[in-house]
Amino acid sequence: MASKDDNFNLKWRAYIEFRTILKIQPVQIFSELQEILCVDCPSRSTVERWAARFRSGDADVTDFPRSGRLASATTSENIALIESTVMEDKCITVNQLEQSMEISSGAIHTILTTELGYRSICGKWVPYKLSENQRLARLNITKKLLETYENCDSRRLTEIITGDETWVYYSTPYSKYKKRSWVRGDEQPAKIPRPDFRKPKIMYTIFFSSHGIVLQLPCESGKVVTATFFTEQVLPNLIKNIEKYRPKTGTEGMKILIDNASSYTAKLTKNFLGVEGLELLPHPPYSPDLAPCNFWLFPKLKIYLQGKDFNTLQALGTGLYQYFKSIPEEEYKNVFYKWVERLKLCVSAGGDYFE
Protein backbone atom coordinates (compact mmCIF):
# COMPACT_ATOMS: atom_id res chain seq x y z
CA MET A 1 0.00 0.00 0.00
CA ALA A 2 1.25 3.42 -0.91
CA SER A 3 2.35 5.70 1.86
CA LYS A 4 0.07 8.45 3.05
CA ASP A 5 1.56 11.24 1.01
CA ASP A 6 -0.41 14.13 -0.39
CA ASN A 7 -1.37 12.29 -3.58
CA PHE A 8 -2.71 9.35 -1.60
CA ASN A 9 -4.85 11.66 0.57
CA LEU A 10 -6.20 13.39 -2.53
CA LYS A 11 -7.33 10.05 -3.95
CA TRP A 12 -9.49 8.96 -0.98
CA ARG A 13 -10.88 12.49 -0.59
CA ALA A 14 -11.92 12.40 -4.26
CA TYR A 15 -13.58 9.04 -3.64
CA ILE A 16 -15.56 10.57 -0.75
CA GLU A 17 -16.52 13.51 -2.98
CA PHE A 18 -17.91 11.32 -5.78
CA ARG A 19 -19.78 9.01 -3.39
CA THR A 20 -21.24 12.03 -1.59
CA ILE A 21 -22.48 13.41 -4.92
CA LEU A 22 -24.29 10.08 -5.37
CA LYS A 23 -25.94 10.71 -1.94
CA ILE A 24 -24.18 7.81 -0.25
CA GLN A 25 -24.17 8.19 3.54
CA PRO A 26 -20.78 8.76 5.25
CA VAL A 27 -21.09 5.56 7.27
CA GLN A 28 -21.37 3.57 4.02
CA ILE A 29 -18.45 5.46 2.45
CA PHE A 30 -16.34 4.74 5.52
CA SER A 31 -17.20 1.03 5.30
CA GLU A 32 -16.19 0.97 1.62
CA LEU A 33 -12.90 2.73 2.34
CA GLN A 34 -12.15 0.22 5.10
CA GLU A 35 -12.46 -2.61 2.56
CA ILE A 36 -10.29 -0.79 0.02
CA LEU A 37 -7.58 0.78 2.20
CA CYS A 38 -7.55 -1.49 5.26
CA VAL A 39 -5.16 -0.03 7.87
CA ASP A 40 -4.58 3.09 5.74
CA CYS A 41 -8.26 4.02 5.89
CA PRO A 42 -8.99 7.48 7.36
CA SER A 43 -11.05 7.58 10.55
CA ARG A 44 -14.83 7.68 10.46
CA SER A 45 -14.88 11.24 11.84
CA THR A 46 -12.51 12.32 9.04
CA VAL A 47 -14.78 10.75 6.41
CA GLU A 48 -17.82 12.48 7.95
CA ARG A 49 -15.98 15.83 8.04
CA TRP A 50 -14.99 15.65 4.37
CA ALA A 51 -18.47 14.45 3.33
CA ALA A 52 -20.02 17.42 5.13
CA ARG A 53 -17.57 19.74 3.37
CA PHE A 54 -18.50 18.35 -0.05
CA ARG A 55 -22.24 18.49 0.72
CA SER A 56 -21.82 22.20 1.49
CA GLY A 57 -20.71 22.73 -2.12
CA ASP A 58 -16.95 22.93 -1.53
CA ALA A 59 -15.31 20.70 -4.16
CA ASP A 60 -11.70 21.38 -3.09
CA VAL A 61 -10.00 18.11 -2.01
CA THR A 62 -6.96 19.86 -0.56
CA ASP A 63 -6.56 20.80 3.10
CA PHE A 64 -7.38 24.27 4.29
CA PRO A 65 -4.20 26.20 5.08
CA ARG A 66 -3.29 25.74 8.74
CA SER A 67 -1.92 28.42 10.99
CA GLY A 68 1.48 27.35 12.25
CA ARG A 69 3.09 28.01 15.60
CA LEU A 70 6.21 30.13 15.75
CA ALA A 71 9.16 28.19 17.04
CA SER A 72 9.93 31.08 19.36
CA ALA A 73 6.60 30.64 21.23
CA THR A 74 7.97 27.87 23.46
CA THR A 75 10.55 29.97 25.21
CA SER A 76 11.81 29.74 28.77
CA GLU A 77 10.16 33.09 29.52
CA ASN A 78 6.77 31.92 28.26
CA ILE A 79 7.08 28.60 30.10
CA ALA A 80 7.92 30.35 33.36
CA LEU A 81 5.10 32.88 32.92
CA ILE A 82 2.49 30.20 32.18
CA GLU A 83 3.66 28.11 35.13
CA SER A 84 3.41 31.01 37.57
CA THR A 85 -0.02 31.97 36.19
CA VAL A 86 -1.35 28.44 36.54
CA MET A 87 0.02 28.14 40.07
CA GLU A 88 -2.02 31.23 40.99
CA ASP A 89 -5.20 29.96 39.33
CA LYS A 90 -5.43 26.24 38.59
CA CYS A 91 -8.78 26.77 36.83
CA ILE A 92 -7.53 29.25 34.24
CA THR A 93 -8.38 28.22 30.67
CA VAL A 94 -6.20 28.06 27.56
CA ASN A 95 -8.33 30.81 26.01
CA GLN A 96 -7.71 33.09 28.98
CA LEU A 97 -3.98 32.44 28.78
CA GLU A 98 -4.06 33.10 25.02
CA GLN A 99 -5.73 36.49 25.53
CA SER A 100 -3.31 37.58 28.23
CA MET A 101 -0.09 36.32 26.59
CA GLU A 102 -0.86 36.88 22.89
CA ILE A 103 0.56 33.55 21.77
CA SER A 104 -1.41 30.79 20.06
CA SER A 105 -3.59 28.38 21.98
CA GLY A 106 -1.64 25.51 20.40
CA ALA A 107 1.61 26.83 21.82
CA ILE A 108 0.04 27.30 25.24
CA HIS A 109 -1.35 23.77 25.19
CA THR A 110 2.06 22.39 24.22
CA ILE A 111 3.75 24.27 27.05
CA LEU A 112 1.16 23.12 29.58
CA THR A 113 1.18 19.45 28.59
CA THR A 114 4.62 18.77 27.14
CA GLU A 115 6.88 21.25 28.89
CA LEU A 116 5.14 21.46 32.29
CA GLY A 117 3.47 18.05 32.44
CA TYR A 118 -0.02 19.37 33.25
CA ARG A 119 -3.28 17.72 32.23
CA SER A 120 -6.75 19.21 32.50
CA ILE A 121 -9.23 17.21 34.60
CA CYS A 122 -12.63 17.99 36.09
CA GLY A 123 -13.06 18.54 39.81
CA LYS A 124 -14.52 15.72 41.90
CA TRP A 125 -17.89 15.88 43.56
CA VAL A 126 -17.73 15.17 47.29
CA PRO A 127 -20.69 14.69 49.64
CA TYR A 128 -19.93 17.74 51.81
CA LYS A 129 -17.39 20.44 52.43
CA LEU A 130 -15.81 19.13 55.62
CA SER A 131 -14.77 21.46 58.40
CA GLU A 132 -11.54 20.72 60.21
CA ASN A 133 -13.46 19.29 63.18
CA GLN A 134 -15.50 17.04 60.91
CA ARG A 135 -12.38 15.80 59.13
CA LEU A 136 -10.72 15.00 62.45
CA ALA A 137 -13.89 13.25 63.65
CA ARG A 138 -13.85 11.06 60.53
CA LEU A 139 -10.20 10.28 61.11
CA ASN A 140 -10.59 9.40 64.80
CA ILE A 141 -13.70 7.27 64.37
CA THR A 142 -12.29 5.30 61.44
CA LYS A 143 -9.13 4.65 63.43
CA LYS A 144 -11.24 3.39 66.32
CA LEU A 145 -13.20 1.07 64.03
CA LEU A 146 -10.00 -0.25 62.46
CA GLU A 147 -8.68 -1.20 65.89
CA THR A 148 -11.46 -3.77 65.98
CA TYR A 149 -11.94 -4.75 62.35
CA GLU A 150 -8.67 -4.22 60.43
CA ASN A 151 -7.21 -7.65 61.18
CA CYS A 152 -10.22 -9.33 62.74
CA ASP A 153 -11.48 -12.83 62.16
CA SER A 154 -14.06 -12.96 59.36
CA ARG A 155 -16.63 -14.07 61.92
CA ARG A 156 -16.55 -10.60 63.48
CA LEU A 157 -17.78 -9.07 60.23
CA THR A 158 -20.73 -11.48 60.12
CA GLU A 159 -21.94 -9.93 63.39
CA ILE A 160 -22.56 -6.57 61.71
CA ILE A 161 -25.95 -5.58 60.36
CA THR A 162 -26.07 -2.35 58.40
CA GLY A 163 -28.96 -0.37 57.00
CA ASP A 164 -30.42 2.92 55.88
CA GLU A 165 -33.50 4.34 54.21
CA THR A 166 -34.00 5.35 50.59
CA TRP A 167 -36.79 6.66 48.39
CA VAL A 168 -38.05 4.12 45.86
CA TYR A 169 -40.21 5.20 42.92
CA TYR A 170 -43.03 3.02 41.62
CA SER A 171 -41.91 3.90 38.09
CA THR A 172 -38.29 4.68 37.13
CA PRO A 173 -37.29 5.62 33.56
CA TYR A 174 -34.03 4.52 32.01
CA SER A 175 -31.16 6.97 32.23
CA LYS A 176 -30.18 8.56 28.91
CA TYR A 177 -26.87 6.66 29.07
CA LYS A 178 -28.71 3.35 29.39
CA LYS A 179 -30.60 4.18 26.21
CA ARG A 180 -27.62 4.94 23.98
CA SER A 181 -28.30 3.69 20.48
CA TRP A 182 -26.61 3.33 17.10
CA VAL A 183 -28.01 5.69 14.45
CA ARG A 184 -27.27 6.38 10.80
CA GLY A 185 -26.73 9.78 9.23
CA ASP A 186 -29.40 12.22 10.40
CA GLU A 187 -31.42 9.57 12.25
CA GLN A 188 -32.53 10.83 15.67
CA PRO A 189 -31.80 8.97 18.92
CA ALA A 190 -34.56 7.65 21.18
CA LYS A 191 -36.28 10.33 23.25
CA ILE A 192 -36.01 9.69 26.99
CA PRO A 193 -38.35 11.63 29.29
CA ARG A 194 -36.68 13.30 32.24
CA PRO A 195 -37.34 11.67 35.62
CA ASP A 196 -40.51 13.08 37.17
CA PHE A 197 -39.78 13.41 40.85
CA ARG A 198 -43.46 14.12 41.52
CA LYS A 199 -44.33 10.53 40.69
CA PRO A 200 -45.50 8.23 43.50
CA LYS A 201 -42.67 7.07 45.71
CA ILE A 202 -42.24 5.45 49.08
CA MET A 203 -39.43 5.36 51.58
CA TYR A 204 -37.97 1.95 52.34
CA THR A 205 -35.77 1.04 55.27
CA ILE A 206 -33.39 -1.74 54.26
CA PHE A 207 -30.96 -3.72 56.43
CA PHE A 208 -28.55 -6.45 55.39
CA SER A 209 -25.76 -8.58 56.82
CA SER A 210 -23.04 -10.71 55.25
CA HIS A 211 -25.72 -13.38 54.68
CA GLY A 212 -28.08 -11.14 52.71
CA ILE A 213 -31.12 -8.93 53.24
CA VAL A 214 -32.47 -9.01 56.79
CA LEU A 215 -35.22 -6.39 56.48
CA GLN A 216 -37.00 -4.33 53.84
CA LEU A 217 -39.77 -2.26 55.36
CA PRO A 218 -41.80 0.48 53.64
CA CYS A 219 -42.75 3.59 55.54
CA GLU A 220 -46.28 4.90 55.44
CA SER A 221 -46.95 6.51 52.05
CA GLY A 222 -45.49 10.00 51.84
CA LYS A 223 -43.91 9.77 55.29
CA VAL A 224 -40.27 9.60 56.33
CA VAL A 225 -38.55 7.55 59.01
CA THR A 226 -38.82 9.11 62.46
CA ALA A 227 -37.39 7.90 65.76
CA THR A 228 -40.85 6.66 66.73
CA PHE A 229 -41.28 4.68 63.51
CA PHE A 230 -37.73 3.38 63.81
CA THR A 231 -38.19 2.08 67.37
CA GLU A 232 -41.77 0.88 67.02
CA GLN A 233 -41.62 -0.65 63.53
CA VAL A 234 -38.12 -0.99 62.10
CA LEU A 235 -36.11 -2.30 65.06
CA PRO A 236 -38.73 -4.78 66.36
CA ASN A 237 -39.07 -6.30 62.87
CA LEU A 238 -35.29 -6.29 62.46
CA ILE A 239 -34.81 -8.17 65.74
CA LYS A 240 -37.55 -10.63 64.80
CA ASN A 241 -35.82 -11.39 61.49
CA ILE A 242 -32.39 -11.72 63.15
CA GLU A 243 -33.82 -14.32 65.51
CA LYS A 244 -35.15 -16.27 62.51
CA TYR A 245 -31.73 -16.87 60.99
CA ARG A 246 -29.96 -17.00 64.39
CA PRO A 247 -32.41 -19.12 66.40
CA LYS A 248 -29.82 -20.16 68.99
CA THR A 249 -28.03 -16.88 69.67
CA GLY A 250 -30.57 -14.29 68.49
CA THR A 251 -29.17 -10.76 68.71
CA GLU A 252 -26.33 -11.75 71.03
CA GLY A 253 -23.09 -10.08 69.87
CA MET A 254 -24.77 -8.31 66.95
CA LYS A 255 -23.61 -4.80 66.00
CA ILE A 256 -25.75 -2.22 64.22
CA LEU A 257 -24.01 0.01 61.65
CA ILE A 258 -26.13 3.02 60.67
CA ASP A 259 -25.39 6.64 59.87
CA ASN A 260 -26.03 9.72 62.01
CA ALA A 261 -29.57 10.53 60.87
CA SER A 262 -31.63 12.11 63.64
CA SER A 263 -33.96 9.10 63.85
CA TYR A 264 -30.92 6.86 64.50
CA THR A 265 -29.17 9.04 67.06
CA ALA A 266 -32.30 10.02 69.00
CA LYS A 267 -32.42 9.19 72.71
CA LEU A 268 -35.47 6.99 72.05
CA THR A 269 -33.44 4.86 69.60
CA LYS A 270 -30.40 4.58 71.87
CA ASN A 271 -32.58 3.55 74.81
CA PHE A 272 -34.29 0.87 72.73
CA LEU A 273 -30.99 -0.56 71.50
CA GLY A 274 -29.64 -0.57 75.07
CA VAL A 275 -32.62 -2.52 76.37
CA GLU A 276 -32.34 -5.06 73.55
CA GLY A 277 -28.58 -5.43 74.04
CA LEU A 278 -27.69 -4.31 70.52
CA GLU A 279 -24.43 -2.38 70.18
CA LEU A 280 -24.47 0.67 67.93
CA LEU A 281 -21.19 1.06 66.05
CA PRO A 282 -19.85 4.61 65.74
CA HIS A 283 -20.20 6.17 62.31
CA PRO A 284 -18.16 9.19 61.17
CA PRO A 285 -20.12 12.38 60.47
CA TYR A 286 -20.91 13.30 56.86
CA SER A 287 -19.67 9.93 55.62
CA PRO A 288 -21.95 8.28 53.03
CA ASP A 289 -18.70 7.01 51.47
CA LEU A 290 -18.28 4.79 54.55
CA ALA A 291 -21.87 3.50 54.68
CA PRO A 292 -22.29 0.15 52.84
CA CYS A 293 -25.85 1.00 51.77
CA ASN A 294 -24.68 4.22 50.13
CA PHE A 295 -21.50 3.04 48.45
CA TRP A 296 -22.81 -0.38 47.37
CA LEU A 297 -26.42 -1.51 47.79
CA PHE A 298 -28.44 1.58 46.90
CA PRO A 299 -26.49 2.38 43.69
CA LYS A 300 -27.05 -1.23 42.57
CA LEU A 301 -30.73 -0.96 43.44
CA LYS A 302 -31.19 2.27 41.45
CA ILE A 303 -29.70 0.59 38.36
CA TYR A 304 -32.02 -2.41 38.77
CA LEU A 305 -35.09 -0.16 39.07
CA GLN A 306 -34.42 1.62 35.75
CA GLY A 307 -37.19 0.79 33.30
CA LYS A 308 -39.32 -0.88 35.98
CA ASP A 309 -42.98 -0.03 36.59
CA PHE A 310 -44.85 -1.25 39.67
CA ASN A 311 -48.57 -0.58 40.02
CA THR A 312 -48.94 -1.50 43.68
CA LEU A 313 -46.90 -1.47 46.87
CA GLN A 314 -47.09 -5.26 46.97
CA ALA A 315 -45.66 -5.54 43.44
CA LEU A 316 -42.89 -3.10 44.35
CA GLY A 317 -42.05 -5.01 47.52
CA THR A 318 -41.98 -8.31 45.63
CA GLY A 319 -39.70 -6.81 42.99
CA LEU A 320 -37.26 -5.54 45.62
CA TYR A 321 -37.30 -8.86 47.48
CA GLN A 322 -36.59 -10.86 44.33
CA TYR A 323 -33.75 -8.53 43.37
CA PHE A 324 -32.11 -8.67 46.79
CA LYS A 325 -32.40 -12.47 46.77
CA SER A 326 -30.73 -12.61 43.34
CA ILE A 327 -27.55 -11.00 44.68
CA PRO A 328 -25.06 -13.80 45.56
CA GLU A 329 -24.29 -14.16 49.26
CA GLU A 330 -20.61 -13.76 48.42
CA GLU A 331 -21.28 -10.16 47.34
CA TYR A 332 -22.91 -9.38 50.66
CA LYS A 333 -19.86 -10.80 52.43
CA ASN A 334 -17.39 -8.91 50.28
CA VAL A 335 -19.01 -5.52 50.93
CA PHE A 336 -17.94 -5.68 54.58
CA TYR A 337 -14.34 -6.29 53.53
CA LYS A 338 -14.72 -3.30 51.19
CA TRP A 339 -16.01 -1.31 54.16
CA VAL A 340 -12.81 -2.08 56.08
CA GLU A 341 -10.72 -1.10 53.05
CA ARG A 342 -12.60 2.20 52.85
CA LEU A 343 -11.86 2.85 56.51
CA LYS A 344 -8.17 2.43 55.69
CA LEU A 345 -8.44 4.80 52.73
CA CYS A 346 -10.10 7.39 54.94
CA VAL A 347 -7.25 7.18 57.44
CA SER A 348 -4.68 7.39 54.62
CA ALA A 349 -6.45 10.56 53.40
CA GLY A 350 -6.22 12.10 56.86
CA GLY A 351 -9.98 11.89 57.34
CA ASP A 352 -10.76 13.65 54.07
CA TYR A 353 -12.82 12.15 51.24
CA PHE A 354 -10.70 9.72 49.29
CA GLU A 355 -12.52 9.36 45.95
From TrEMBL:
GO terms for molecular function: nucleic acid binding. PANTHER family: MARINER MOS1 TRANSPOSASE-LIKE PROTEIN. This is Transposase. It comes from Oopsacas minuta. The lineage of its organism: Eukaryota, Metazoa, Porifera, Hexactinellida, Hexasterophora.
